[in-house]
Amino acid sequence: MTDTELKSRHRAMWASGDYAAVAGELVAPLGPTLVEAAGIAAGQRVLDVAAGTGNAAVPAAATGAEVTASDLTPELLRIGERRAAARLTWVEADAEDLPFPDAGFDAVISCIGVMFAPHHERAAAQLLRVCRPGGTIGLANWTPDGFVGQMFAAMKPYAAPPPPGAQPPPLWGDPDHLAGLFGDRVTGVTARRRRLRVDRFGTPEAFRDYFKRNYGPTIAVYRTIAADPDRTAALDTALVELARRFDTGGGAMDWEYLLWTGRRRG
Fold first, then answer.
1. d(CA 70, CA 47)
2. Percent helix, strand, coil in the chain (nearest 5)?
3. What span, in angstroms and rounded, lies between the C-alpha atoms of 21 and 247?
4. Angstrom distance (rounded) from CA 37 to CA 138
5. pLDDT per residue as tens digits for the range 146-159
6. Tens digit of pLDDT for each residue in 117-166?
7. Number of CB atoms found within 10 A of residue 91's CB
8. Strands 186-198 and 253-264
9. To which H or E segment does residue 11 belong?
10. For residues 123 and 101, what is the distance between their CA atoms, to the nearest angstrom?
11. What is the pTM of this model?
12. Which of 145, 141, 151, 167 is nearest to 217 (CA)?
């Protein structure tokens, strides 16, 4: 598979289902949390990489910062644009090949976005390149051991094999992995494990059905095994068991993520 074909497949995956619903109904609190952790303030030039529909870009713009929201999937950008925030520009862009000048931003952030770029070193290099010396890089990423990381682990046996060189998204939630990606090119690093409370689903089955209907990566896996009813049933069961394992009572779950910030060295 060529890189162009891989990116085309990623665009189609994130355009499927209804990621705007997932962003608005489940993970919306992550954006403001990241904006606060990154110290976004009025007058700053901010880039949100893999911004989706703007969960971090919109609250960043609300501080008075000049924000550019970039994403590979134009369908998500169009939804974000309808939110019509001032001081916010929407740009279609690949996180592994950002069309922005070197050192062009005071802060570069990504909220459960850049972690899905398949080539981690390329994406990390781009975050560093477009951030000015002394500027902030801020990330919120699902951890490997948390609920979403474990969901990807549960889906892996049913998914199409990843292309050569692609790395699992939840690695971005491992501080050691980020240390390897950024090395001594950042300083003043903070890495805190946080939990997002999700209480929308009354039953494990309700969670499974919601993600089968709305979440692009889950939809893609089910399409891969659509012709095999036994494997489809097995994945149905695996997702229900996962939600049951993380249930803290009444269907509520805590989804762990890593909140990470650092400053680019001069």
1. 7
2. 45, 25, 30
3. 21
4. 7
5. 999 999 999 999 99
6. 999 999 999 999 999 999 999 999 999 999 999 999 999 999 999 888 89
7. 14
8. antiparallel
9. helix 3-15
10. 15
11. 0.96
12. 151
- Please determine, for residue 67, whether its predicted confidence score (pLDDT) is greater than 90: yes
Query: Encoding tokens for residue 45?
Result: 């030039």
CA dihedral 223, 224, 226, 228 (to 10 degrees): -170
CB atoms within 10 A of CB 72: 25
The two tokens of residue 139 are: 């990330």
Query: In CATH terms, is domain 17-199+254-264 a member of 3.40.50.920?
Result: no
Residue 85 has pLDDT above 90, yes or no: no
CB 145 within 8 Å of CB 257: no
> Residue 160 belongs to what H/E stretch?
none
> In the structure encoding, which two tokens stand for residue 227, read together?
């012709």
Locate tokens 């692609």: which residue? 166
Stated length of the chain? 266
Phi/psi for 188 (5° steps) reads 60, 35
| Conformational region of residue 255, where left means phi above 0, alpha means psi within -120 to 50, and beta covers everything else | beta
A 10 A CB-CB count for 204 gives: 19
